[in-house]
Specification:
Elements: E1 13-14, E2 18-19, E3 27-28, E4 30-34, H1 40-49, E5 53-55, E6 58-62, E7 71-76, H2 84-92, E8 97-102, H3 107-120, H4 131-139, E9 145-151, E10 157-166, E11 169-177, H5 186-201, E12 205-211, E13 227-231, E14 234-238, H6 246-257
Parallel strand pairs: 11-12
Antiparallel strand pairs: 1-4, 2-3, 4-6, 5-6, 7-12, 7-13, 8-9, 9-10, 10-11, 13-14
Length: about 260
Amino acid sequence: MNRLAPQPLQHFYRTAALPCPYLEGRMERKVLTEISGPAAAALYNGLSRAGFRRSHHLAYRPACTGCNACIPVRVAVGTFIASRNLRRLARFSEELAAAEEPAVASGEQFRLFSRYQRSRHAESDMATMTFGDYRAMVEDSPIETRLVTLRDPAGRLYAACLADRLDDGFSAVYSFFDPDEARRSLGTVLVLRLVERALVLGLPYVYLGYWIAGSRKMAYKARFRPLEALGPGGWTAIEPPLPGCEADVSAMKADAAD
């Protein structure tokens, strides 16, 4: 009689409480687990569908006492329709070629990453990262990970997104771009390119991490419709207006009126 080999237990840990980086006056705690071994990809695929994110070889999700503001969201690729505003952004940067590159750190990437951090997140710990820290962020991955880049015809790097390949799509881990090109909304353009790539490969989703009501940094995610959110009943479509995204919703309405 065949017997199934016993599977090792997956251990989960809860971090200590630290100040929340998104909502002032609140404390943040996370549940995390290690992604390792021959079953790392299968483990992370399941964890992603359960709302977990990845950092290095760890998967985590918020577990804050009395707060559920962080909502996992993903783009439904097959039914995604780009708004007029998104199409305009894509045309504005159409000379920038998108490509998938190996997740290997370079000085060129690090210089752009450092400029972005100093401009956008000067008070964060990431603004003080060394090249070694950056290299670990890019290369320390137990699963299939790529860099999606945007370059001009001369080969100059304008933007990059570290993205994990899942069995049902892509997970955008971290994006950065030239802070002098803010008018291009290159972070949004990178997501568009991920959606396009997923469509070509027949993958149904692009995971965008967490959306938080009232966080301006998260408002751009409301542009990608239909957007699905993970709640007690599983993944379900959500429609604007989303709380805290009034300005972005106004832009959507303007798109619809044109």
